[in-house]
Amino acid sequence: MRARAMLVTGFQAYGGRGINPAQEIAQALDGERIDGTTVAGRVLPASFHKLRGAVEELVGELRPRVLVCLGLWPGEPMLRIERVAFNHAAFEIADNEGVLEKDAPLDPGGPVARRATLPVTSIVEALLRHGIPARHSTTAGSFLCNALMYHALGAVDTLAPGAKAGFVHVPYVPAQVALLQQDLTAKAELELHQRADLASMALDLQIDAVRTTLRVSQAA
Amino acid sequence: MRARAMLVTGFQAYGGRGINPAQEIAQALDGERIDGTTVAGRVLPASFHKLRGAVEELVGELRPRVLVCLGLWPGEPMLRIERVAFNHAAFEIADNEGVLEKDAPLDPGGPVARRATLPVTSIVEALLRHGIPARHSTTAGSFLCNALMYHALGAVDTLAPGAKAGFVHVPYVPAQVALLQQDLTAKAELELHQRADLASMALDLQIDAVRTTLRVSQAA
Amino acid sequence: MRARAMLVTGFQAYGGRGINPAQEIAQALDGERIDGTTVAGRVLPASFHKLRGAVEELVGELRPRVLVCLGLWPGEPMLRIERVAFNHAAFEIADNEGVLEKDAPLDPGGPVARRATLPVTSIVEALLRHGIPARHSTTAGSFLCNALMYHALGAVDTLAPGAKAGFVHVPYVPAQVALLQQDLTAKAELELHQRADLASMALDLQIDAVRTTLRVSQAA
Amino acid sequence: MRARAMLVTGFQAYGGRGINPAQEIAQALDGERIDGTTVAGRVLPASFHKLRGAVEELVGELRPRVLVCLGLWPGEPMLRIERVAFNHAAFEIADNEGVLEKDAPLDPGGPVARRATLPVTSIVEALLRHGIPARHSTTAGSFLCNALMYHALGAVDTLAPGAKAGFVHVPYVPAQVALLQQDLTAKAELELHQRADLASMALDLQIDAVRTTLRVSQAA
């Protein structure tokens, strides 16, 4: 029997940011039916030590046919469809539990990397055809997003073989950038040309983009 | 008698781009009433030789109390409220008539620069409060946008004294970036890390931003 | 009698940075003879309240035929030859005395802007011919560099009429970026894609660039 | 018997660029002795079809104890020490033979990725201590550099087991950026804010950086 649900996960807010579009997209799509399949949207803790167990439990419980994990890439102006997760952690900031992994493998016994099973190129082409800026990417970074992608692909391999699974990085939402600007201005600590990249994308367009990602993945 | 209308101008498409959000915003707001004042939205030619006469004619005819000229700043991730126009032209690309001014004053007899009479700081603060990324800027560049701002401020000075006038740079819209990406991919001429900055902002948010700009300017 | 010396000024370090290439260039060129003219290299305080008096005193004392003021533009990858100074201050960080001017004119009675009298276009062309990345710029920002440029051009106007004067922004030096990276890593406060732009240029190339700037300016 | 030489490879110029710092560094270090070991500097063709055979032949012939492959990352402001090569090719421009691989594995039977055996973290720390901007990276891209890194690590695995091997991306040299700017200006096709990132690093600093990379790698 093929897996039925499509699972979308989003991290909770981290790095001192009040919101995380990844979480909002997962919650917005929870329960929606796309081409006859129900979407399960779940929020994951921004915790290096908890995310592996959390995603393994979700995959084991739902046995999804499609798994799209979402995370924020601050400053990125478009959707980024990740091709590969690397067995390595090197954080620049701490996670929500204060864990600051500087240089370690995610799984000493695991493969060097795991390849997304999502149809990455077709997703990018479909998004661009729909007028949504998107690109493929060959790194999910070395923080929680990459760790989740690595562990999620491992979980799918054993618990939901054949599922289309991967990771999509999303931009800030505009209100988040506006808040960040007010915060930076109040602090008067950084010069504008030294500030975070401040690109953003409207939440509804981000949700449409993930919807298209799910549709293309299911059809693949 | 004080001028009544609020005038919003937007350039037509240029630089080989199919559309220009500035034009779309001006057309979208044309005829709208904001706090009891009607907005006149007009499209201006992307022509160095025609823009001065065109804006002088509009200002003379409408005697606006508020004038907001709009132009696209490719790659800019947010609204940019310009503080000053500089009496200088130095183009990097030709205008729609093939004019490529490399290094010349806009008006040999004019002042070195003209200061926007819009309440720039209040506009930026209001936009950020509304969750719209925005910043003030001290250069409108040295292409058509700066030239229009310079001539528009000169026209207001003589034909609509006391009017709140200035220039707002707007980002790409997302569909424009998606088209640009498909075009660049087809050409295979540039590497991604060499490509245009590809930030964008949804058209409806850009329209809201200009609406807020007009409201704050009229109240100033 | 024409002014004799060529004056180069550089700001002292500011913004918590240990060094400032602008200061180092001014000191390196002090006393050097270029095409028969002696260069006076002077360091200026990173103080909004002191810089005007300091530059007026220097210009009055030396009556330079060429005045090139230097300042750091963090993250800028090349020399930036400024075309214009704007009568406005809007700081993002405080100066070395804690002054944080948010939105004020530099001189309520002064012109909106002052145009550099340096041969900007010729300087850029000469630098590029010498293999040194450089561009002209239409904003010196709204912090101390712009304020100094504005007041320096005013001082030249009355105390050294006919002098070629203006402002050149310089990049970080590499060691400065390396220190900044170590500092940011130690703080673990920012993600790399949120960090300062980290471009730099070797100090000796920056010195050569200013030498070329002086030579071209004197010959103009 | 341990391998004796340290091998440094650099790609020849590609993408229509006249020079490639990677090639110049390899040639500059050829024959130099570092801590008692001779460096062999070799230039590789910018050809997708030839690079695998070329690097396998070099590794088989020299059995290096350290292998550092070099390539240009246009716009990158610092040294980038790559952690991993991914079994995938997706070109944005053609190689020197007109090959334009859009989406294919490098080796259908090979592992998803290969991890650099260079001491990446120690190299970055040493470079920063020496005042040279550098960072680790988790993607070598999807063009020739990544392909070479993948095949080089495979060759070392079988032909020089235990060798410290990996890839270092280098920035433009300043003269290259100056040429690029003159070329873009002549073409008048792109606006500055749309141009390639234009960061660069002096060639001698790049050579020092690779020297430090070799020294740290040999000592590891």
* Percent of sequence in beta strands of chain A: 15-25%
Characterize the quaternary organization of these chains: homotetramer
Shape designation of chain A: globular
Biggest sheet details of chain A: 7 strands, mixed
Residue stretches of chain A low in confidence (pLDDT < 50, at least 5 long) are: none
**Order of secondary-structure elements of chain A:** EHEEHEEEEHEHEHH
* Rg on CA atoms of chain A, Å: 17 Å
Structure report:
Four copies of one chain form a homotetramer. Chain A is α/β, with parallel strands linked by helices and 220 residues long. The first copy, chain A, has one domain (6-173, 201-219): Peptidase C15, pyroglutamyl peptidase I-like (Aminopeptidase, 3-Layer(aba) Sandwich). Helix content of chain A is 37%, strand content 20%. The first copy, chain A, is built from six helices and nine strands. Chain A has helices at residues 21-29, 48-62, 120-129, 144-159, 174-187, 203-219, and strands at 6-11, 33-34, 37-44, 66-72, 79-82, 84-86, 113-115, 134-137, 164-170. In chain A, the strands form two sheets. A seven-stranded mixed sheet of chain A has the order 2-3-1-4-9-5-8, sandwiched between helices. Chain A has a two-stranded antiparallel sheet with strand order 6-7. In chain A, a hairpin with a 2-residue loop joins strand 2 (33-34) and strand 3 (37-44). In chain A, helix 1 (21-29) crosses helix 6 (203-219). The longest helix of chain A has 17 residues, at 203-219. Chain A is globular. The mean pLDDT of chain A is 93. At the B-C interface, strand 7 of B face strand 7 of C.
